[in-house]
Every structure is written in C-alpha cells, then in structure tokens.
C-alpha cells in the first residue's frame, strides 16, 4: 500500500493489474459472492489478480509493457475449491502449471527493477477472509456449485482503490 498526499489528507492508494471475469462465468460466480461475501462483492467484481500493488512500483514501464504485448488471450485452468486463512475464505484454485499466466507476469514486470518475481498462483476468491467467513455448511453448498474449469481472458485492467473503498478501473489493455 502506498500513501499519497492529497489536498485534504494522506490517502492510502492501492493499484493492481487484474483480469476481470466475463460471461459466461461472471454471473454464476458473482451470485455466490453476492450471497456469501456481499462486502467484498460491493468493492470489486470477480477477478484474478495479475500484479499486486507491491509489484506496481514502476507503473510507467508496466503500462508500456502492456501496450507492446502480442498475446491474443490468456487461458487459465481451474481445479478444486479450497478454504484459505484458517477456513475463513474460499477460492477456486488455479490448476496445472498455468505457464501463460506466469509468463505474462514476467513480461509485464520486465524493466521495472523487480528481479525476483514472486510466484503468484492464479485463483478466484469466492469468500475473502478479510470481510467474509465461510462455515462448513457454506463450504458444502459451494462444493455442489458448477464452477469453471477454464477461463479465457482478453483484457488486462489497471485498477486502484483509495482508502479501502471501491476499486475503480484506471486503464484497460486488450490483448491483441
């Protein structure tokens, strides 16, 4: 998180590169999030984080790298539901190597000064442990839902959040 000076006060600004989930999977995932994690649902749409805020210290080079990409789309494979953070959260885990996801992260972080790129496993958060709480009963219900096994993405969004509020799209880049 980065504090930025404004006319009134210091604001906490977070910036991420994100892959928003579109139809045909968006509505079924959002239905789950709306019911079991309404607070997170109101802050941000269903997505996969591509670059976290601590990786976006050089947004100019990341933006340049995005504008020069030659990828046509990114496909991510998904596996099982998994509980996270002592069972409070629930996510759909990425399955397999998801090499194209990791490769895209490396391309976006090229020439940004980040030499040791951390491994970020792609996942879709259904219940965020920060503001939701999964019970055994809820988890059993979620396991019965039809969830995607593969999703194709054609757009990378740069998003920002101020002071813990709603995330907003700052810029979008279509994969060619």
3D structure, described in words:
This protein has 176 residues and is an alpha+beta fold. The protein contains 5 helices and 9 strands. It has one domain: Cyclic phosphodiesterase (Cyclic Phosphodiesterase, Chain: A), CATH 3.90.1140. The strands form 2 sheets. Strands 1, 2, 3, 8 and 9 form a 5-stranded antiparallel β-sheet that branches. Keywords: Ligase.
Describe the structure concisely for a colleague.
The protein has 5 helices and 9 strands.
SS-based class: alpha+beta
Backbone CA Rg: 17 Å
Shape: globular
Stretches with pLDDT under 50, minimum 5 residues: none
- SSE order, one letter for each helix or strand: EEHHEHEEHEHEEE
Annotation, overall tally of beta strands: 9
Report the CATH architecture: Alpha-Beta Complex
Strand content: 25-35%
What does the secondary structure layout of this molecule look like, with pairings?
Elements: E1 2-5, E2 10-20, H1 26-36, H2 38-43, E3 47-51, H3 59-67, E4 74-84, E5 89-94, H4 99-108, E6 123-127, H5 136-143, E7 150-153, E8 155-162, E9 168-174
Antiparallel strand pairs: 1-2, 2-3, 2-8, 4-5, 4-7, 5-6, 8-9
Which key phrases capture this entry?
176 residues; alpha+beta; five-stranded antiparallel beta sheet; four-stranded antiparallel beta sheet; 5 helices; 2'-5' RNA ligase family protein; ligase; Cyclic_Pdiesterase
């Amino acid at each position: 998180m980065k504090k930025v000076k404004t006319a009134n006060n210091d604001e906490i600004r977070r910036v991420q590169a994100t892959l928003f989930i579109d139809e045909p999977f968006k509505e079924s995932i959002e239905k789950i999030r709306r019911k079991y994690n309404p607070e997170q649902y109101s802050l941000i749409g269903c997505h996969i984080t591509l670059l976290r805020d601590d990786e976006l210290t050089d947004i100019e080079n990341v933006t340049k790298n995005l504008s020069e990409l030659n990828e046509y789309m990114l496909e991510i494979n998904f596996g099982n539901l998994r509980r996270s953070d002592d069972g409070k959260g629930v996510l759909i885990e990425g399955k397999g190597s998801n090499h194209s996801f990791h490769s895209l992260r490396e391309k976006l972080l090229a020439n940004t000064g980040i030499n040791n790129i951390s491994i970020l496993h792609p996942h879709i958060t259904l219940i965020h442990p920060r503001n939701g709480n999964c019970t055994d009963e809820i988890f059993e219900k979620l396991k019965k839902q039809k969830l995607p096994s593969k999703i194709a993405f054609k757009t990378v969004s740069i998003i920002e959040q101020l002071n813990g509020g709603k995330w907003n799209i700052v810029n979008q880049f279509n994969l060619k």
